[in-house]
Amino acid sequence: MSDARTFGTDAHPSPRLRGEGRDDLVVGAASPKGDGEGGAVGGAFSGELPHPRLPPLFADDDVGKTLSPQAGRGDAAYNFAYLDEGTKRMIRRALLKAVAVPGYQVPFASREMPMPYGWGTGGVQVTAAILGRSDVLKVIDQGADDTTNAVSIRRFFAKTAGIATTTRTGEATVIQTRHRIPETPLTEGQTLVYQVPIPEPLRFLEPRETETRQMHALAEYGLMHVKLYEDISRHGHIATTYAYPVEVAGRYVMDPSPTPKFDNPKMDDCPALQLFGAGRERRIYAVPPYTRVRSLDFEDHPFTVQSFDRPCALCGAEGHYLDEVVTDDAGGRMFICSDTDACETRREGAQ
Amino acid sequence: MTPLLSAHGLTKTYGPRIACAGVDLDITEGEVLAIVGESGSGKSTLLSMLAGELAPDAGEIRYRDREGRVRALGAIGPAELRSLARTDWGFVRQDAAQGLRMAVSAGGNVGERLMGLGERHYGNIRACALDWLDRVEIAADRIDDPPTRFSGGMRQRLQIARNLVTAPRLVLMDEPTSGLDVSVQARLLDLIRRLSGELGLAVVIVTHDLAVARLLSHRIAVMRAGRVVETGLTDQVLDDPADAYTQLLVSSVLAA
Where in the numbering of this chain does the ABC transporter domain appear (chain B) (predicted)? Predict the structure, then answer.
């Protein structure tokens, strides 16, 4: 048996651990391929792998295609979809567990993202972990494609992953959302990624996380109804209008994040995969396609959704979720569809 | 008849400090047992062990469930233990803030156990809460007030209603009357005595107040330094104490 304290290169069988071939990791260094992009990743992971369980990140010929035109140039040397491959695998593992146990909150090692908590760090990490080169991404914030957060996240992935983006619900394969579920019915093969601020539905009823985990484990959800009871006793009806608790697949009670309860029925038996990421709280949960999602209620106070007493001021359609928009400082306001894509589609159809 | 709850050789230590040493006790339905002793004598630790909240270091607690099976508490899984604690047992705490949800209305507090058992009809829960508030002498128009707006005596009565709504068989009380003035204490004691008699409850009440023990309990156990030094019928123990410490305790009570 050889001396364990040997410091020779034989102690590190991997060329990567020995530091070989790392020159091309330096940004701006000439790529061995000479094509100016993608060389970095291919070079770093060629040869023997440092860990027997890690397969190659990309086949060599994929590297150029997986990186956006900006990647590998100047200061913008990003891995595909910003996160490193190890992180993406960790998130995918959490996602698989979440899909296997619908509604269960799976802890994951949330990363620091180049954006503040509360802006969708959880959703962005989930999106980054599931994006492929052929995906088409749509991002909505409050149902709108044109708000700051939606535009920024769309650009973020266009830049770091070089993928196509869209505002059309029907064209998208991955839709990241903060508040709304698009009006256009989702289809099989689409994935809806929610940005979740507070994943724990029992948080404001029971502050101890140790206790809420016990309650989830034992399916003790009487407390959730105490909240609804309080609503009725105070307001005469269930006054919770967003983050309305749901029971998933007859087992776990889940917080659908700040989506208005108007959208709760769309989660039930949805053909699309629904993934939830909470970055600050480090939790991932999921609703697989065609899963029963039931909004909690009382027998004598059944669940109802909001209704609006007027049509959209832009497209004129009724029965949609409306946003109130202040138009001047003299009290002027209008009510317009929250889902900008659906509203535009209706207006185009009318012309 | 097998007792509802029986404990044998209960021992609990915190490091070198002995909280309970070899405590034996039995309690049957309709019986009120008072555990008295000075502060630090292990009364509350004993109560926590009886409630299944604290695992004893040695000894065993047996409980006879509704099907008549006698079961060791340590052998019951956490799910069933919690369900027993919600349905078969009640725990009235010294500090009402620990036994109540202070941010939830009185009606919600009383209804929580019902909803935990799967009651999903608002009207029924409301009616049941009103009935119980009436039985503990809380006015019906206070049903939507949170306990933060209740007086100390009302909070304790609300705690009792919240615990009794599922018709438990065993109620543990940890100094329920301490910190209340005497007239409020008297009302609360009347209420506890009436309800335990009506419902045939087994009650274990921990108190340092011998007057409370005399008024409520049938039997009494005197604790000192983690051990039960004397046990017997309440009148017997208080009027004719055999143990030196009990004699001291009885003679220390100030006559009004």
Answer: 5-250
A226–B contact, CB cutoff 8 A: yes
List all residues 6 or more positions away from A231 whose beta carbon is below 8 Å from its beta carbon. A237, A238, A239, A240
Q: Measured between alpha carbons, how far is residue A229 from residues A92, A303, B111, B229 in Å?
A: 38, 13, 9, 48
Q: How many domains does chain B have?
A: 2
Check B120 against A299: CB less than 8 A apart. Answer: yes
Instruction: Report ipTM for this prediction.
Output: 0.86
- Give residue A8's pLDDT band: very low, low, confident or very high (50, 70, 90): very low
State which residue of chain A sits closest to B116, comparing Cα positions: A222
Strand order in the sheet with A293-295: A252-254, A246-248, A293-295
Report, as ranges of residue numbers, the positions in chain B whose pLDDT lies below 50: none
- Domain match, A244 and A329 both: no
The residue segments making up the domain with residue B100 are 95-167
Number of domains in chain A: 3
Q: Which residues pair with B231 in a beta bridge?
A: B221
Question: Does A276 fall in a domain?
Answer: yes
Q: What is the CATH number of the domain that holds B183?
A: 3.40.50.300
Structural domain includes residue A301: no
CA-nearest residue to B142 within chain A is A233
Kindly state whether residues B62 and B122 are assigned to the same domain.
Answer: no
Report which secondary-structure segment, H or E, holds A211: helix A209-217
Are A233 and B79 inside 8 Å of each other by CB? no
The answer to whether A38 touches A25, Cβ cutoff 8 Å, is no
Decide if B141 touches A, using CB distance below 8 A: no
What does pLDDT average to over chain A? 83
**CA–CA gap between residue B100 and residue A313 (Å, rounded):** 49
Using CB atoms, which residue from B116, B126, B144 is nearest to A222?
B116
Q: Do B122 and A214 count as a contact with CB atoms less than 8 A apart?
A: no
Asked if residue A224 and residue A147 are part of one domain, the reply reads yes
Give the number of other Cβ atoms within 10 Å of residue B233's Cβ.
12
- Looking at B167, B189, B209, the residue that finishes a domain is B167
Within this chain, do residues B3 and B83 fall inside the same structural domain, yes or no? yes
A218 Cβ under 8 Å from any chain B Cβ = yes
Residues of A annotated as part of the active site:
103, 312, 315, 337, 343
Bridge partner residues of B71 (DSSP):
B63
The string of DSSP codes covering A55-123 is: --SS-HHHHHHHS-SSTTSTT--PBTTBS-HHHHHHHHHHHHHHHHSTT--EE--PPP-SS-TTSSHHH
Q: Check whether residue A189 and residue A222 sit in a common domain.
A: yes
Q: Is the predicted pLDDT of residue A46 greater than 80, yes or no? A: no
The residue behind tokens 């209706």 is: A346
The Cβ of residue B124 has, within 10 Å, a number of other Cβ atoms equal to 15
Q: Are residues B252 and B181 in the same domain?
A: yes
Helices (H), chain B: 43-50, 78-87, 96-99, 106-116, 122-135, 152-164, 182-199, 210-216, 234-239, 244-251
The reply to whether A82 falls in a domain is no
pLDDT bracket for residue A308 (50, 70, 90): very high
pLDDT at residue B240 in the model: 92
Domain shared by B157 and B194, yes or no: no
Do the Cβ atoms of A230 and B122 come within 8 Å? no
Domain that holds residue A250: 89-295
What is the Cα Rg of chain B in Å?
18
What's the Cα-to-Cα distance from A165 to each of A50, A94, A175, B162, rounded to whole Å? Answer: 35, 26, 10, 56
Tokens encoding B62: 């047996």
